[in-house]
C-alpha cells in the first residue's frame, strides 16, 4: 500500500514561482521570531530551558533572515520587471520597513546572546551591522513616503496601520543603538551613536504619532478594514512600544556616556525624562492594546482567512512587552513585571499559532502571493 506524501509547493504552478512571488513581508517572520527570542530571554519566569530555547530561536532567526535575503535578491536578479512593480503597490511597498527591523533583531541578539560570553567579535559585528541598519531604516523613512506621495494611489478608506512600517524602522534602530552603546566604552564612538539614536527616535516616533491620528480618523469614518487585514490593529503597538523601549535604554546609558563630557548633567536629565516619556507612551500603547483586543474579538466571531499579515500579532506585541519589562526593571515595579510576563506569554501563544500555520502554508506554497503581479497577463506570470 502506497502512502502519498504531500508535495512541497504543491499550490504553485512551478517551484520557481516561490521566487517570483517572494515579497518583503516574509521578513515579518524574522521580526516576530526575533522579538520572541529576546522577550523569552528577558522574562523573569522560571521556565526550564528558557535561555537555551531563546538562543535557539535567535540562531533559527539568523538562518531565516539569510534564506529570505537570498530569495528576495534572486527575485530582483531573475524577475526584475515584476520586482520593480512593488514601488507602485500601496500596501506591499510598506513592507520594505520589515527588512531593517528584521535585521535589528539579529543585531540585538548578537548583543544579548553573542556577547554574553565576553566575545568582542560579536560586538564588532553588531557595530557594523547597526550602521547598515541605520542606512536601511533612513532609506525606508524617506523613500517609501516619497513613493506614497508621487507614485502610489492611496485613499483614506483603504488606509491601514501598515503605513507605520516604513516609519517605525528608525526607532527600532534607535533602541538597538542604546543596546549597542551599553557594550561600548565611553568615548566619541559611543557618544556619536547615542546622539544619532535620539535623532532616529525623532525621525520615527513623531511621524508615527501623526499616522496614528489619521488612523483613528479613518477607523471612525470608514469603520474596520476588511477581514484580510484583521491583524493590522496590533501594529499600532509598534511605534509606542519601541519608542518607550528606546527612551529607557538610551536614558540608562546617557549618564555613563556623558559623564566625562561638558554635558554630564544632561545624562541624568535624559534618564529621568526618558522614563517619564516612556510611561506616557506605554499608557498610549495600553489604550491601543485594549482596542486591538476588542477589534480582534469582533473579527474572529467569523472565520478570518490566514495570511502573512497575521505576523502583525507578534512583533508589535513583542516590543511592547519588552518596554513593559524595561519599565519593571527601571521602576522596580511588581505591576509592570507581572504585566510584562503576561504579555510575553500572550506573545508566545500568538507566535506558536502563527508560526505553525505559516510553516504549513510555506510548505504547500499557497502563502507565496505577490499582489504586485495582479493584472499581468498569464503568460507574464509563468516561470
Secondary structure blueprint with pairings:
Layout (H helix, E strand, L loop, with lengths): L16 H4 L6 H16 L7 H29 L1 H5 L13 H15 L7 H31 L14 H17 L6 H35 L14 H22 L5 H36 L15 H17 L2 H31 L19
Helix pairs in contact: 2-3, 2-5, 2-11, 2-12, 3-5, 5-6, 5-7, 6-7, 7-8, 7-9, 8-9, 9-10, 9-11, 10-11, 11-12
Describe the structure.
With about 375 residues, the protein is mostly helical. It is built from twelve helices and no strands. The protein has helices spanning about 15-20, 25-40, 50-80, 80-85, 100-110, 120-150, 165-180, 190-220, 235-260, 265-300, 315-330, 335-365. α3 (about 50-80) packs antiparallel against α5 (about 100-110).
Key structural traits:
globular; 383 residues; mainly alpha; disordered C terminus
Low-pLDDT regions: 377-382
The number of E-state strands comes to 0
Structural class: mainly alpha
- The ordered H/E elements are HHHHHHHHHHHH
Question: What's the number of helices?
Answer: 12
- The rounded distance between the terminal residues' Cα atoms is 35 Å
Q: Helix fraction? A: 55-70%
Estimated radius of gyration: 21 Å
Average the pLDDT over all residues and give the rounded result.
Answer: 94
Overall geometric form: globular
Question: How big a fraction of the residues is strand?
Answer: under 5%
How would you name the oligomeric state of the polypeptide chains in this document? single chain
Q: Sheet with the most strands?
A: none
